[in-house]
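Everyone, describe these structure tokens:
***
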Amino acid sequence: MLKKWGSSLMLLVLIAAGLSFLMPKDAVGEGNATGSIAAAAAQTELASRSTTFTAYIHTLNQADGTVSLSVDPIGWYQGEAADTVFKQEDPEGYAELGGAPDGYYIVNRSEDNVVYPVSPDAAVLMQLYDRDGHPENADIQPNEAITLSKFIQVFNQGGLLDPAMFPYHITVKDGKVVKIVQQYTP
């Protein structure tokens, strides 16, 4: 009996090991304690490498010499991918317009915010913002580099061209934001 049970156990281990090769490296389970542990492990692994995602920035704070931002990650789609998702999400709108408005589509299923520390030397690239206190003079200047301190000032002033209304491509490396790129939306 012990021999038979040992063989069955060995077979189950081999099958489980074989199936693990079919799973994507970053696959994460949901809805149970094991999934939560796997999710935490995946998040830790991602935090140690560079990853870029798109999000709305809700707050940008500077206190005690450190900067942090609170973001709401979103699904950002362009071109054919935007048309495909738009068709799935809003078939009537797709039928009426024939594609995603302005060539992009945003999906935001959750408004959960995640807080990240920002590296003091983070790169910030802007497309459109109020440069001189006169938003009517603003024009698009693709990937205009500004300092982090200038971004904090611009972001926290709000106004007609409120930077919080734009999505941003956020790059996180080793758990810190190292790059912030404003996404222009017409």
Notes: Strands lie at 51-63, 66-78, 104-107, 114-126, 144-146, 167-173, 176-182.
